[in-house]
């Protein structure tokens, strides 16, 4: 059996921080319901001290989730934040407090104005303070991707010694190269005493378009939790996309020695739901859930897919809940695709007729981005009239 990778969904916290994507409590509850249906392990429901609305969202999602998953609230390494999160999480059967602080030189020097020793002490304190309220405490080392590795080991050691159940290693700015990030995770596994009893989590951002690769490199090197969002929603270029890491793990489970419990046929529904509620469109060529993820437009590809789907499709659309593969007819389509579509519409032509049909099709296709069934119907009817005349 491969290792179980816990899927920590932060669409409702980090995802919602995306400009223009904020959600009210009712909207968050609808998304949370879908996350539960999809089988995620942890829902980060909000940042309770940030607003009364977020406090209520964490409370309501805690109530909704019951036993089905862990519900988590974010805090800074500040006592009053932790008090507030603990209060909001009272409704949850499986509550988790997610607390921590920045650990990179720029966070220490320019944002927090603290020394390394003070940072370690605050890490130790926030975890033990949160432990007064809940058993399950996750510590985050913000901007770990740009931190000094020896110092990171010392901070994580303090969090583990204080009782953290999960240690989150974020590449907050999406700066790292995957291999280097993987080496950081390995170095923590090798050097932090007691880490084998703690889950290492990876939380990566997409500033260089590598969030998914970073998360998977983390998994290869010992991480057992991935923090991610539906559609990769999140600040700036976004967070790791849940649908991407889940499907990559599904396709490469043996090599990664990993599996998740996500119900993948729910992925497309989740994507559409989050897009509709937040008003954030999903780019057509987005992996897994984009409108074109299973669309084939060029003649060579269409010919291949019509002969055998796996020539150009690595995922069965049903596996992610997509409607199915699509053959898009355009000026790049070849004979095979046109013949196939016409026969689906009930029209068959002899070989000697087909060149004429295809040339008529190209004339239409050169004037449009896509040729629809209605265009084909009128083309065939016009040809029939001309042939009969
Ligand atoms: O990107 C980040 O570092 C975060 C932390 C607050 C976990 O979102
Ligand atoms: Zn983040």
UniProtKB/TrEMBL annotation:
Residues annotated as binding Mn(2+): 14, 203, 205, 239
Residue span(s) of domain Pyruvate carboxyltransferase: 5-268
Subunit field text: Homodimer.
Catalytic activity: 3-methyl-2-oxobutanoate + acetyl-CoA + H2O = (2S)-2-isopropylmalate + CoA + H(+)
Portion of the full-length sequence here: 1 to 389 of 511
Similarity field: Belongs to the alpha-IPM synthase/homocitrate synthase family. LeuA type 1 subfamily.
Species this chain originates from: Paratractidigestivibacter faecalis
Protein name, entry field: 2-isopropylmalate synthase
E.C. code: 2.3.3.13
Pathway assignment: Amino-acid biosynthesis; L-leucine biosynthesis; L-leucine from 3-methyl-2-oxobutanoate: step 1/4
Cofactor needs: Mn(2+)
Keywords: Acyltransferase, Amino-acid biosynthesis, Branched-chain amino acid biosynthesis, Cytoplasm, Leucine biosynthesis, Manganese, Metal-binding, Transferase
A molecular function (GO) term: 2-isopropylmalate synthase activity
Function recorded in the entry: Catalyzes the condensation of the acetyl group of acetyl-CoA with 3-methyl-2-oxobutanoate (2-ketoisovalerate) to form 3-carboxy-3-hydroxy-4-methylpentanoate (2-isopropylmalate).
